[in-house]
Amino acid sequence: MQANDLLQLAEQFGSPLYVYDAEKIQSQYNRLTKAFSKVPNLRINYAMKALSNVAILQLLRDMGSGLDTVSIQEVLLGLHAGYSPEKIFYTPNGVSLEEIEEVHALGVQINIDNLSILEQFGAKHPHVPVCIRINPHVMAGGNANISVGHIDSKFGISVHQLPHLVRIVENTNMNIVGIHMHTGSDILDIEVFLYAAEILFDAAKNFKNLEFLDFGSGFKVPYKKDDIATDIDELGKKLSKRFNAFCTEYGKDLTLIFEPGKFLVSEAGFFLAKVNVVKQTTSTVFAGIDSGFNHLIRPMLYGSSHFIENISNPKGKERFYSVVGYICETDTFATNRRIAEIKEGDILSFRNAGAYCFSMSSNYNSRYKPAEVLWMNGQGYLIRAHEKFEDLLQNQIPLPVDVAATV
């Protein structure tokens, strides 16, 4: 997308505003499938927690994607978006057996990540196809909050508990059709990923009726110029060769599954915010925008860096700014960042705003959530309206008049 397109959308739909480029999502999907084109059976399940707008789900559905979900609500959204149950994969963590039963009743593939629930569910539903999430105890990912395969992680069944796991499966006569792992997000070292894959291959040998192996995702995308990213082509070449060899050893062509979220939508997203005030202090020039961590929490939560561009003055002389929000707590998006000269009323564009941005937004400070727009075939389509005051009140219930009068 061009800066002029974004400016036009900010003028048309207001700010703050999320914009998603459909062409970029499509190109990322095609890039991943091409990298693993030598695998006979490949399936991509979009990790919808990254961005769960129904229009985005429909876009990926039409490209052939399945869904990776982590809650009953995401499952219901997927069904609402037109996915058939067999195209939806459910990988929860720490949920109740009751929720898993609800999902099972919908016909969705279940992935279980702890021994207790595995035994309870297996005893009750021995013939239901189940996938098992293994924790390979491999540290991968960037920030500690997004590394989920290490030994202290709450996710998955420890690979060291494999004998116990196998005993449960044998005692309940469960139907195990898949093995799954996810090491974490922002994977840089392909060799670490391949090492974890070998652990999954070894675990898979304990189960004779597998239909698929799910390797999660966590592929890193670039956040700035010359940033390091996962080499998808190299990973595709190496893992495809090893996966096909394992299928030969196993005696059956299995399906290779990935669950990309950030990889598909991060670079497609732009977050547009208007500069309310330029404030010079004794040591800093602040650019205060009409947003805050209520709309984009990743820099505060993960220390993530989003490239910020002044699209109102892209060729202006660069100065140093600290870009901050309007929340009544510290919400700093960038500190002493070189940005083209900013004036009040300018529109700033935050890159890589497609993943875990709107989906983690809130109404903190009773602020409204922004609108979302999908840029497709040279046109902007409103896919979520900007909230209004009535939306804040929608589920609130005031005290009855007679009770309030006694306070």
UniProtKB/TrEMBL annotation:
Substrate binds at residues 298, 302, 329, 356. Its EC number is 4.1.1.20. The active site is at 328 (proton donor). Residues 24-266 form the Orn/DAP/Arg decarboxylase 2 N-terminal domain. Residues 18-354 form the Orn/DAP/Arg decarboxylase 2 C-terminal domain. GO terms for biological process: lysine biosynthetic process via diaminopimelate. This is Diaminopimelate decarboxylase.
